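Researcher: Next entry in the queue.
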Amino acid sequence: MLRYNFKLKPFAHQLEALERSHDKEEYALFCEMGTGKSKILIDTMSMLYDRGEIAAALIVAPKGVYKNWEQNELPVHLPDHIVHRTTVWSPSTTASNLGKLADSLKKCDALHILVMNIEAFSTDKGTDFAIKFAKAHRLLMVVDESTTIKSRTAKRTKNVIKVGKLSKYRRIMTGSPITQSPLDLYSQCDFLHPDLLGFTSFWTFQSRYAVTVKRSVGSHSFNKITGYQNLSELGDMLEKFSYRVRKEDCLDLPDKIYTKRTVELTDEQAKIYGQLKRQALADLENGTVTAQHILTQLLRLQQVCSGFVRLDDGTIQEFPARKLDELLDTIEEIPGKAIIWANFTHDILRIEAALAKVYGRDSVRAYYGGTAVEDRQQMVRDFQNMDHPLRFFVGQPRTGGYGLTLTAATTIVYFSNGYDLEVRLQSEDRAHRIGQKNNVTYVDIIAENTVDEKILRALRGKINIATQVMAEDYKQWLI
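Model: Structure for this entry, 479 residues:
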């Protein structure tokens, strides 16, 4: 039995993962979203530091996740006895940021933790700093959501592997390491160690596990993949250096698990958001706004966070935004069926089209006010049928959030939130009700430093914004 001064007692599956992996130089944590793989990593990092095996940790994660390590995961799970210094990567050249980055390279009697977004490894600046950090310390390096390095030819994949070679310990973490084909595993495992899979090149790996036929187009010939083979052998090989856990295996988890993914506004979004916010504050100063007017302004601000705004004449103006990309990245981590709730019809249709493009037309259906009544029950039946290809139920909470049983899903994603607490609670319970045998994970995708954050905080605090729209409260949400 592994004994350690944990800050929070691990669940049984987390303890088992630690017992198997805590002293391994390379290891893969294939843990579904909501099963607590971040805690496993932080406890591993803590034990290695206490034993003098490492002096620092480099945590690499997608943009929507990496700040969550500093703001939530490390404060909750890192043991209090460990003195640490956490630095979040930024390419900014301000004196303050440069000073923080320089301090992270200095040796001291504290655990250095550097958190970087995976996109930084597509740049020379980010990669060069990561190399300096790795050379300055005995290092544990982890790639969170490691499918971000599944493309072996991508610049960021090559750079992550390069830095990994300078690290004493390496970890990859993801809920689903195979998003498109078993060949996704090659570069993820190559980061851990090039000999783990027993192949010195990708092409020999491919020839062992993929079935190919030669095709010709004009004077050009290539091998087209038509299927896969020897997958049980590949699975047996993975078991030697990985731990797999699904939510349905974790009987001691809470039945509702909440997490969030964050995005930054694009420059154009930020400009429009600022204009609308100033107008809303000006209206408040005039003292003539009604509760309905306040809610309409909140809706407009949230539309901007999604990447569009409906003008007074009813037309829609779109602009660059990151929420949809973050949703697609999140979906890659989710096995099985999922519900995606969105407030606005425009978002629902965009999400439906984006998922259909990636996963196929039969994989997604939209359930909103415009959905024909005769189609609605069939859609629910198809979704509840585990053998049916319908995998994504994209709906409007006010339309689909009441009365439906959607227990085929164990993940619910909120692309945007409404202001009515009852609607939120009812929509949560479409999957979390009689017939559900597994834990349910709720993922909120929110735009940083916007009304998104404050509305989510209010809903989590059980505040019904729709019935508490006093002017002073609203002003606080805006500023």
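Model: The chain has two domains: 12-249, 256-264+319-478.
Researcher: Noted, moving on.
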